[in-house]
Amino acid sequence: MKSSDVPKVFLNIPVPDYGLTEAVQGPPIRKRKVALVSTAGLMHRGDPAFSMDSIDYRIIDSQDERDLVMSHVSVNFDRTGFAWDCNVVFPIDRLREKVAAKEIGELSRYHYSFMGAISPEKLRPAAAQLSKNLLAEKIDAVILVPI
To answer: Which end of the chain has fewer CB atoms < 10 Å from its terminal CB, N or C?
Structure first.
């Protein structure tokens, strides 16, 4: 895409350059431990809500029975799909089906959600901490669910 094809409204949004990262070979998908990372502003009911300038994430404990709620702060954000089926923004049930079918190894107990209306540069410290958590949990694959 040429810059002349980009709508003018997007030309002033800074986009960080993360450079190239070499792909690494991991175990076969049938042996991988998988975690979800969403930008839907998800949390367990009772957890602190996201604010307009939240630069952290919420831990979604898959063994916690409290309701998942969406505290995405954008008034333009359509929550209808989430209200009907949380898998639209957090496909945990689909991944459980994949584990049951032995198509993936296992699911992490913990999954994560950011509030997606934040500059990527501001999220860098939280993302660095999250990557340490994922490595400590021996996560082999992360499914990013951008909202």
So the answer is: N
What burial class does residue 58 get, using C-beta atoms within 10 Å of its C-beta: 0-12 exposed, 13-18 middle, 19+ buried?
buried
Phi, psi dihedrals of residue 35, rounded to the nearest 5°: -125, 155
Digit-coded pLDDT (tens) for 18-46:
788 888 888 999 999 999 999 988 999 99
The DSSP output letter for 78 is: -
Which helix (H) or strand (E) covers residue 91, if one does?
none
pLDDT digits (tens, 9 = 90+) for 55-75: 999 999 988 867 888 887 666
Query: To 5 degrees, how large is the angle CA 128–CA 55–CA 142?
Result: 45
Compute how many other C-beta atoms are within 10 angstroms of the C-beta atom of residue 134.
19
pTM above 0.70, yes or no: yes
Name 1's Cβ contacts closer than 8 Å, sequence gap at least 6.
none
**Which residue type, as a one-letter code, is found at position 9?**
V
Instruction: Give the gyration radius of the chain's Cα atoms.
Output: 17
